[in-house]
Amino acid sequence: MELKWSILIKLLIVQYLSVLCVSQDFDFFYFVQQWPGAYCDTKHTCCYPKTGKPAADFGIHGLWPNYKDGSYPSNCDPDSVFDKSQLSEIMSSMQKDWPSLSCPSSNGYRFWSHEWEKHGTCSESELDQREYFEAALKLKEKVNLLQILKKAEIVPDDGFYSLDSVVEAIKEAVGFTPGIECNKDSTGHSQIYQIFLCVDTSGSEIIECPVLPKGRCASNVQFAKF
User: Fold this and answer.
1) Which of 5, 9, 19, 207 pairs with 29 at a CA distance of 20 to 30 A?
2) Does 13 map to a domain?
3) What is the tens place of the pLDDT at every residue in 122-167?
4) Which of 115, 117, 124, 181 is catalytic?
5) Any catalytic annotation for residue 115?
6) Is 61 among the residues known to form the active site?
7) In a domain? residue 9
8) Residue 189 is a catalytic residue
9) Is 8 a member of any domain?
10) Contacts of the segment 66-69: beta carbons below 8 A, 24+ positions apart
11) How many domains is the chain built from?
12) 2, 44, 61, 153: which is the annotated catalytic residue?
C-alpha cells in the first residue's frame, strides 16, 4: 500500500509540473526579422527554399516569448507538435514572409516546426498554433523594415551606415527602440543581421522593450546585398 501511495504521489507531481510548464507565463514577445543578405554572406552556407530564391526583404525568424530579466522559456509542451495542416490557408504567406535559408533546401516545415515547438508552445496560454503563426505574419505586415530603412536612405547596397542611424530610423517609424543583432561576413565586416521588436503578450501590439538583446554590432554596419 505504501508503495502504491508513493507511485501515486510521484505521478501527481509529474502531472503538476507538466501543467505548470505548459501554462508558463511570459512577459513579452521578441518579434525577430532577419536580413537574408547577411545570413547568406557569412562563412556558413545558405540554401534557398524549394520554392526558389526569396525576395530581397527581411524575413521572419520567430516570435519568441521572453521574460523581463532577459531569460526565456523554451519547449514548454512536448505534446503540442507542429501540424502543417494548421497553416494550409496561410501557406503562401508563410513561404513568402517566413522562408528558411538553412541547408539543405527545404519547404520550410522543419524551420516552422522548430519555432513552434521551442517558442510557440510557451505562448499557448495566449495563442494556439494557427494564431501564433498568423500573429507573426500580421506583425511583419505592420512593420515593413526594408521600406523604413530605404526611406532613411539606408539601402542594401553593401554600403556602411552608422548603427545609430539604423536604430533611429526604425524608432522614428515604429515609435519604439529596436534591438539590432549583427554578424560578421568572411572578411570580418559587421553586418545588419537581425532586428528585434518587442510585442505584448497578445502578440499584436508593439511595445518598448523591457530588455534589449546584446547585438555585438560595430558603430558602423554593413547592409549586405541580396
Assistant:
1) 19
2) no
3) 999 999 999 999 999 999 999 999 999 999 999 999 999 999 999 9
4) 115
5) yes
6) yes
7) no
8) no
9) no
10) 66/26, 66/27, 66/28, 66/29, 66/30, 66/211, 67/26, 67/27, 68/27, 68/28, 68/210, 68/211, 69/211
11) 1
12) 61
